[in-house]
Each structure stands twice: as C-alpha cells, then as structure tokens.
Amino acid sequence: MDWLNLDFQLPITNPTWVFFLVLTIILFAPILLNRLRIPHIIGMILAGVVIGDYGFNVLERDSSFELFGKVGLYYIMFLAGLEMDMEDFKKNRLKGLVFGIYTFIIPMALGIWSGMTILGYNMTTAILLASMYASHTLIAYPIVSRYGLGRLRSVSITIAGTAITVTLALIILAVIAGGYSGTIDGFFWMWLTLKVIAVVFLIIYFFPRIGRWFFRKYEDNIMQFIFVLAMVFLGGGMLELAGLEGILGAFMVGLVLNRLIPHVSPLMNRLEFVGNALFIPYFLIGVGMIINVRSLFAQGEALKVAVVMTIVATLSKWLAAWFTQKTFRMHKHERAMIFGLSNAQAAATLAAVLIGNKIEISPGVPLLNDDVLNGTVVMILFTCIISSVVTERASRQITLGDDFILPDEKTKEEEKILIPVSNPETIEGLMGMALLMKDPKRNDGLVALNVINDNNASESVLARGRKSLERTAMVAAAVDVKVATATRFDQSTVSGIIHAVKEYNATEVVIGLHRKATIVDSFFGALAENLLKGMHRQVMIVKCLMPANTLRRIIVAVPVKAEYEAGFLKWIDRLCRMGGQLGCRIHFFAHPETLRYLESYVRKKHKNVRTEFTAFPNWEDLLLLTGQVNYDHLLVIVSARRGSISYSPLFEKLPMQISKYFNNNSLLVLYPDQYGDPQDTLSFSDLGHHNESQHYEAVGRWFYKWFKKS
C-alpha cells in the first residue's frame, strides 16, 4: 500500500501545490471578505501572514514571490501612470507639486522628531526612518480603477505627489547608503544627477516613438502585450542602473505610453486583467509573508516601535491630505481619496528598511535594528488596511455622489451604434472607432449587423457572415463590452441596414469606406449614397490606414451653419470622446460663427480634452488643409445631406478633393443627424429634390459677384 504513503511536510515546496494554494487564496479572499465589506486587498495581506514563515509556515517566501512580487509592484505603478488623464494631470500639476511637498515635509518633520525623542534613535537613523514615512505606495489604486475613478482630480493629484515624494525619499536612501559606503562627495552628486537626467530623457523621448512604430507595424495582441511589459521592465531597469528604484521607471513608462494605449482598448483590458488577476495579488501575499506578528509580543520595544511608526505614518499622511484640501478648497471626499491612496506603506518603505538593516554603523550593529524591521512590516499591514478601507469608502461615496448630482444623464437619448460588417479586413478599424466613441460609462450599446441578400443566400455567404460577427464579438469581448450580433436577410444591403436601425433604435451607423471597383464607380459607393438618402440618423464613413491608438491628432473640417443641424452636439460629443480616449489634440477648422458655438460647447462639456480652434471660412478647396494633415493624423470631414441647412454644392467636389489630397490619410466622413423641427417641414418630399434652394443661392452669389466687379 505504498500508494497511501503521502510525503507531506511543511512548508510546501512542490511548485504545483505552491501555485495552487496561491491561486486559491486569490480566488477565495475576495469572496470571503466581500461578505464582511472589507476590501479584498486586505485579505491578500492577511492570507500572506497566515501562510508565511511567521504564521503556520504553509509556504516559504521563495524566489517566486520575490519575482512575481516585483512584477506586481511595477504593475501597480505602471497602471497608475497608464490610467491617468494627462490633460487633468497637466492642469493639476501645481496641486500635485504642492501635495508632494506636503506629503514629504510633514512626515519628515514628525518622523525625525518622534524617532529622536520617543524612540531615542540618532539623527541618521531618524532621518532614514522619516523618509520611510514620507514615501508611500499606491496599493489601493486597484480599488479606484475598479470604480472607474482613475481620472478624478484627487487621484491625479495623489499620483503626481507620489512621484515627487518617492523620488525624494529614495534620494535620501541613496545618500545615506552612499555615506556609509564612503562614496558621498561632489562627484557622487554630479554622477547621480547626470545618470537620472539621461535615463529620464531616454524614456520620455524614445519610448513613445518606439511604441508608436511598434503598434503600427505589429497588430498582434500577444506581441503588443509582451512589448509593453518589456518596455515597463526596461524603464525600471534603466532607473535602477541610474541609482534609484525601478518603480519610478515603471511609473514613467506608464505616463509616456498613456496616449498609445486607450482606456477602452483590448490591450488595456489585457494589461489590467493580468495584473489584477495574478501579479498584484502575488505581491500583496508576499508582503504579508514577511510580517512577524509574534515578535511584537516577545519584547516590549518591538511593540512600542510598531505603534509609534504606525501612528506617525498615518497621522502625517492625513495632515498632508488635510493641508492639500484646505489649500485648494477641495471637497472632504477628495481629501479622503488623497489620504486613502497615500497612506499605504510598502514598496519604497520595504526597500529602505531592508537596506538600512544591512548597513552596519559598527560591527554587528545595523543602522535599522530588528525592532524597526518588525515594526515596519506591522506598519505596512495597518497602513495598507487603513488605505484600503478609506479608499473603498471614498470611492463609493464619490460614485454615489455623481449619480445624485447628475440625474439628467439618465434622461438623454440612449446611445446605440450600429456597425454593418461584411469585409473582415475593416472589422478591427470599425470596431475600434465605435469603441472610442461610445459612452465610456456603459459596457453595451453596440450592434454588429450582417446583411445577406435574399438572392445570394448560399452556405458560403452565411458562413462568412457568421465569421465576421464572431470576429466582431471577440473584439468587443476583449474590452469587456457587450455587442449584440444580428444577421438579416433582405432585398438589398441598404434596406437591411435601414430596417435594423429602426428595429434596434440605433442612434448612428458606422460603415467602412467603399473601395472603387471600376472607373465609373463613385467614391463613397452606391451603398453609402443610398443609405444617406434613406435614413436621417448620423452616418460615419471610416477609412483606417493605421491603428487608432497611434493617431497623434484629429483634424476636423466643419461646414458653415453646422451649428443649426439637429445632430451638431452629438458629433461633437463623439469626437471629443475619441480625443479623450486617445489623449490627442482635436483641431477644429470652421467658420468664425460656427467656431464660436463649437468652442463654447467644448469648453463647457469637454474641458479636459485638448482642443484647438482655427477660423476656416472658405470651403471651396480643401487644399488649404493639406499643410495641417500629416500621415499620422485623422481627418474628419463634417458633411451634410442635400436639403439640410449646412449643405452646400461645394460638397459635390468632396470625393475628388479627398482622393486627390488625402488619399494616404486616415479618414472619417461624418453626416450628422438631419431630423428635428427645422427639417420636419421638408420630410414630405424626396431628398433628391431638396437642392433647388441651393441652386438659387448659387445663382444669387454669381449675380452678387458680377455686380461687385462692375
């Protein structure tokens, strides 16, 4: 019965069972603690305490925890930079700087005072201890991300302040470590400064350009994911070589790649999924495994150090958040968010205490003794608990507050974007545009349609249609968006689309640009032209020559009197959403009168989007825009159907001008909604006969010019 002889001993070292236990903790910790309304981050840390060397010794903190823990720590900082609203970050950089100064100076002052007077340490030990209080880790950031609040002003301020205080704390650590190794002199400071400046320049200047080139050349999802991770660790490794902690490098890589990875994109979804599912929990469990709770009760000094460190660290961070709130007259919920995010001690704190524990001020006497080491890990546990609870509560209150303040959002027209798919090559581009323009607060509202002609309903056509719809659903599922798929049999594609618009109550249609098959074929194709005649909903005709996330600017040409169209505000919202997701500038060219309405609405509703406005009174030749549109820009031409207020006979020249001047550019031709009070009076007549007034207007302009010359 040798098969009953189980070789079981603790700690478990078999890789299979180690990984199984870790996955079990990651799975069940949130389930158990959600019932108690406790953030699951705390569960990961407590689980690490229980299974670690100082708990029941179920698992040993081996190299796998060090490796995955470092990846998780880099992931937290990288995602913090990646999910920031860069425009909001720039707008709040002064507030972030002020908070960074507060959250560094206040903990340093309280830390030095408490270390020397209460704990009785010397000046050097007290300064290093205070720098540990000054630094903090955004360990509660996954909570903010889960609530979708990553772009709040308070979050941007906290992240900016984090970068400042962690940098200063790590510089103090480098100076103290260098002092005991005998390397502190003028050359040390000069060399450290030069290395840091060189690395920061390389990351800021080269990383975005390399990323943009890679994303254009390789569209494979797995290759893009691996590339981004490689860039994160390259940035972290480079900053470590410069003499600082790699977490700052990971944060900087997140900032510079921010505009290349839209918040609603398959790549962003994969990055968040892998980090939150594996690497970040691994890091949290590893933090819990180094906590020795029993040592606190073995001798009174360790408990005293732990209590003092926890109180001073928490109080100093609360004071920094309070001073920031009072300085900038912020809401109390914003103060709670800043305090919650900045209170957790983990990354730089662990680095400082481990390095300080290895530095010997005399043979056998470390700079930071074991009492400080144990007190630090207890401080990490309690500050992480406080940080998680406060951030969870603040996030919930802010979310409920938004719902209360903006009840009119629910009364708006329910958005639903219809995407007819037939060509497999255009599915990625069409879905990418639709995802960028959809309401970011909703995970539905997309309808993928495949229309099959009754006269050509063969098995092969049906199979191709199913594959196209499956591919569309896969693209949407990659970003956790639900897309409704439908196959419709109809006499023509146009008729099928029009009926689907009515059936699903679609608010707009996104179609691909027609490819000319013959010389006599029209530029937009018969499908688009008949679709525009047969429906009044917004239609967007798209041609994508490169992935949307690599676009650097959106150029929008707006016709005269566009502000009088019923769909004027709708297409502005869609384009501003796209600009906000991509983090690129939107440059509007319009008539001065139209420009006034445009600028007023954008400044009021989309103030965080980078915009630029230029008067463009002459629509006779789009050649004037060729100097503004580069190969990596998206040209948006706001057109109009015949008979509408903003229609002009000049639009008849659009196909020729586009094919002549902008054939190598990504393009979006937009036809706004053409319904509402001003247009209802024309609905009794066929759209094809609505252009008589335009001809009369053209004749009137000709007579005016003739008399003016005379």
UniProtKB/TrEMBL annotation:
<dbReference type="Pfam" id="PF00582">
    <property type="entry name" value="Usp"/>
</dbReference>
<keyword id="KW-1133">Transmembrane helix</keyword>
<dbReference type="InterPro" id="IPR038770">
    <property type="entry name" value="Na+/solute_symporter_sf"/>
</dbReference>
<keyword id="KW-0812">Transmembrane</keyword>
<keyword id="KW-0406">Ion transport</keyword>
<feature type="transmembrane region" description="Helical">
    <location>
        <begin position="273"/>
        <end position="293"/>
    </location>
</feature>
<dbReference type="GO" id="GO:0015297">
    <property type="term" value="F:antiporter activity"/>
</dbReference>
<dbReference type="Pfam" id="PF00999">
    <property type="entry name" value="Na_H_Exchanger"/>
</dbReference>
<feature type="domain" description="Cation/H+ exchanger transmembrane">
    <location>
        <begin position="24"/>
        <end position="391"/>
    </location>
</feature>
<dbReference type="GO" id="GO:1902600">
    <property type="term" value="P:proton transmembrane transport"/>
</dbReference>
<keyword id="KW-0813">Transport</keyword>
<feature type="transmembrane region" description="Helical">
    <location>
        <begin position="218"/>
        <end position="235"/>
    </location>
</feature>
<dbReference type="InterPro" id="IPR006016">
    <property type="entry name" value="UspA"/>
</dbReference>
<feature type="transmembrane region" description="Helical">
    <location>
        <begin position="305"/>
        <end position="324"/>
    </location>
</feature>
<dbReference type="GO" id="GO:0016020">
    <property type="term" value="C:membrane"/>
</dbReference>
<feature type="transmembrane region" description="Helical">
    <location>
        <begin position="40"/>
        <end position="59"/>
    </location>
</feature>
<feature type="transmembrane region" description="Helical">
    <location>
        <begin position="186"/>
        <end position="206"/>
    </location>
</feature>
<dbReference type="InterPro" id="IPR006153">
    <property type="entry name" value="Cation/H_exchanger_TM"/>
</dbReference>
<keyword id="KW-0472">Membrane</keyword>
<feature type="transmembrane region" description="Helical">
    <location>
        <begin position="119"/>
        <end position="143"/>
    </location>
</feature>
<feature type="transmembrane region" description="Helical">
    <location>
        <begin position="155"/>
        <end position="180"/>
    </location>
</feature>
<keyword id="KW-0050">Antiport</keyword>
<feature type="transmembrane region" description="Helical">
    <location>
        <begin position="12"/>
        <end position="33"/>
    </location>
</feature>
<feature type="transmembrane region" description="Helical">
    <location>
        <begin position="94"/>
        <end position="113"/>
    </location>
</feature>
<protein>
    <submittedName>
        <fullName>Na+/H+ antiporter</fullName>
    </submittedName>
</protein>
<feature type="domain" description="UspA">
    <location>
        <begin position="415"/>
        <end position="543"/>
    </location>
</feature>
<feature type="transmembrane region" description="Helical">
    <location>
        <begin position="65"/>
        <end position="82"/>
    </location>
</feature>
